[in-house]
Amino acid sequence: MGVIHKLKPEVTKFIIDNKQKDPSLSCRALTQLVFDNLKVKVSKSSINAIFKENNLSLPIGRRQKVKKRKFNMPLLPVIEGTKSITVVPESGKGEKPINTDGNVDKRIKEAEEWAMKLQKEDRQRSEDRLNLEKQKSENDGKLKDEAADLRFLMEEAAKLNAKKDLEKAEEAKRLEDEIARKAEEERLAKVAEAEAKKAEEEKAAQEAALKVAQERLAKEAEEIKQAQEIARKAEEERLAKIEEEKRIAEAKRLEEEIARKAEEEKAAQEAALKAEKERLAEIAESEAKRAEVEAGRKEKTEVDPGTKRLEEEKSAEEAALKAEKEKWLRLAEEELKSRQQATKKETVANVPPAEPVKAIQGQVSSGIILLKAIDYLVGGSAQINDLICKELGREAISNLNLTQALIFKSLFGMENLSLFWDLTQVRYSKEELDNFYLEIQKSENIKSAAVKIFSGVFNEARGVGMHFPDGHSVYLDGQLHSIWTTQNIPLDFSSPVLELKNNLNKCFFKKEPLILFCAPGYDIPSNDFFNLLLNFSSTGKNPDNLNIFGNKLEQIETIPLSSTNNYTLVFGLWPWQFTSSRKVKGIGGFELKRIEKTGQDVYLAEIEIELLRVSLNQSITFKGCAVKASPDEKIRLVILNSGEEMNLVQLAETYLGCWPNLDEAFNDFSRKIELFAYVSNPQKILSKESFGPPIEPGELEKIFAKYIKMLDTYLRWHFLPQGYSEKDFSYTNECFYKLPVSLEPGQGAVRVKIGSNQAYQYQKELEYMLRRLNERRISFKDGNALYFENVSK
Q1: How far apart are CA 279 and CA 325, in angstroms?
Q2: Which residue has the higher pLDDT, 553 or 328?
């Protein structure tokens, strides 16, 4: 990390507070104390400067020797019986004991006062001696620190002097070379002058020949131009003629189509009209027969008073029947004419375009699809489905949608599963789900195993180490952003173990490219990165195993690799990276291309770049593509690859299908690195305690509901901005899980469009979450990827 010269206020305050609490702390001790507590390395000279500024330095020099003071011991009286005997100390040589009969109490009191005074002086001298020893030890430590700083300055001065001597030698050599160069230039100038005179003569001859040739070529060019113009006009006439023929043929085809449809419609209408006429004729015939029968009956029957009335009613019925028949015939003819006119209008119109892919609209259950995406990353439903199918003897693949529907039903309810049916294209009734639940609820083994599975699927991998045959290792973070020189990778780049293993399996066993977000570093390519570029696609030099490690740098799994395999690496190079260590050897013209997977329109151009490692005089040349969002802006990103060759569009689709967010993703990547490197507060690890109380065996519905809430915790922890990890399911459910969603199937992807109204106040958080989800390569077993889009911007 290096020495920080501009200390933050909290670091300075920490040093002053600890020095004031314990003045005996030395600069060296405080250096270690600051590093242990704040993860910041501060030099001893910086700490000493802080002491001086705040008057915290201890005095320097030898302590003064305290001379012992001579004094006479007082006379101590001893009482024997009724007489007082004064005891003279042994130090009083030549003096005789004196017997006095004075005031005994007064002499005893004076003796006690003298004794207490002596004890107090002895204690004071002891404390002074200890303080002086302590001060001496501190002064000695400070002198050692200053001596170390002096040695460091002397070493730096020696290095600087050596550097100056080297520069002087180089300058002398440069002057010698300059003199030699000037002499060589003078010699070459004389030679050039002679050659120039000769060249002038040759030039005059060449110009004369060139003039003749130019005149001949101009004449030929004019003839060619005229011929091309004639050919162009002929071609235009031919194409116009072909276009006219096509138009006439199309018009003729449409007329024939109109006529055919009109004939078919007319025939159908005539057939219907004929059938209707026949039906009415049959009715009329039957009525006529009935009338004849009635007339014969009338002749045979004796006339009675009601006969006349019956005949009048019959005549009225026959008139009404005739009017109804004429009405139906008229309506049938009008219907036939209207249908013929409508058919003619529809046929004359242009042929309608092909019907687009139908979008599935209006599902207000965004929570299901968001948490289904997290479930894909951790793999909980897939593992519990394998367990259930093993217990019940079912096929795992065909049973997966049923298991997932049962899991999400436990918390969202049957009424909110419409979007899940549209996503999986499989629908189950409530009875099927209930019967399936009753079947698996009977197994105690499934209950206990489900608790164990759901508790373990959220274990995270901090990264993976690629070990090479020569003994060195290169580290990748869990989300495959870039390579690192150590395992000390920011925890924000961790991923579920299953997700990392799936991504590694695609690259190292299914021959798909390893796609890194960007090359590491800014100024020059690191040695690890350069070695990776040289060895990753070389047989015998490529990685021989992968070592996955966790958030606490513990070893999780080792995956052996074959030395005969060749791999492909794709990575992004930003315009400000390696400016002094790269050379653009060629760049083509930009063309507009469509990235179907993400729905982006970008401008691409072929580019050839040479990366240099000056220290070892090595270089590698790559061919890739340069990316722009519009034709007028500068290049945003260069995508390069080593190993298997790819064409321009294939390379861009490979990278942008994995990292579609470009500038915003790089800003988020850099911000997380800065927080990890420069913020004193340690990063929190996603532990089992982060998911709340542990899952307890019981009813499967409660176990499934707890798993859904654990998915919500993981989403808040890794896919929402800082601060949301402290929220709960009810908060995110209210903010993000009740938004309208539409699904739009496409080529190789399903576009998930999530929207809201203008009053929605979490637009930025929603946009951030969807961008992070799009970077995690979420796809289903059929290969269709999920691409999330915020349509309420």
Answers
A1: 10
A2: 553
> Is the CB of residue 491 less than 8 Å from the CB of residue 551?
yes
**CA-closest candidate to residue 598, choices 403, 746, 701:** 746
- Output the CA–CA distances (angstroms, integers) from residue 331 to 264, 276, 326, in the order listed: 20, 11, 9
Q: Enumerate the H helices of 527-579 as residue ranges.
A: 527-535
Token couple for 107: 């002499």
Amino acid at 726: E
pLDDT band at residue 394 using 50, 70 and 90 as cut-offs:
confident
CB 402 within 8 A of CB 456: no
Cβ burial, residue 720 (10 Å; 0-12/13-18/19+): buried
More confident: 94 or 330: 330
- Candidates 47, 44, 67; CA nearest to 56 is 47
- The neighbour count for residue 50, using CB atoms within 10 Å, is 20
What is the per-residue pLDDT for 344?
43
Which residues, including other chains, have CB under 8 Å from residue 381's CB and lie 6 or more apart? 375, 400, 403, 404, 407
End-to-end alpha-carbon separation of the chain, Å? Answer: 41
Write out 444-474 in H/E/C secondary structure: HHHHHHHHHHHHHCCCEEEEEEEECCCCCEE
Q: Are 559 and 545 in contact (CB under 8 A)?
A: yes
Beta pairing, strands 514-516 & 483-484: unpaired
Whole-angstrom distance, CA of residue 604 vs CA of residue 588: 9
Q: 3-state class of 358 per DSSP?
A: coil
State whether residue 716 is helix, strand or coil: helix
Q: DSSP letters along 365-396, please?
A: -HHHHHHHHHHHHH-HHHHHHHHHHHHHT--H
Alpha helices in 478-563 (DSSP H): 497-508, 527-535
| Token couple for 106 | 């007064």
Q: Which residues contact 15 (CB under 8 A, 6 or more apart)?
A: 30, 34, 42, 47, 50
Inter-residue contact 610 to 619 (CB < 8 Å) = yes
Report pLDDT for 248. Answer: 81
Most confident of 264-268, 456-460, 541-545: 456-460
Q: How far is CA 475 from CA 489, 553, 668, in A?
A: 9, 12, 20
**Computed from CA positions of residues 152, 154, 155, 156, in that sequence, does the dihedral angle turn out positive or negative?**
positive
Residue 476 CA to residue 559 CA, distance in Å, equals 15
- Alpha-carbon distance of 128 to 132, in angstroms, equals 6
Per the CB < 8 A criterion, the answer to whether 142 and 27 are in contact is: yes
pLDDT one-digit tens code per residue, 297-311: 545 444 444 555 556
Q: What is the CA radius of gyration of the chain?
A: 49
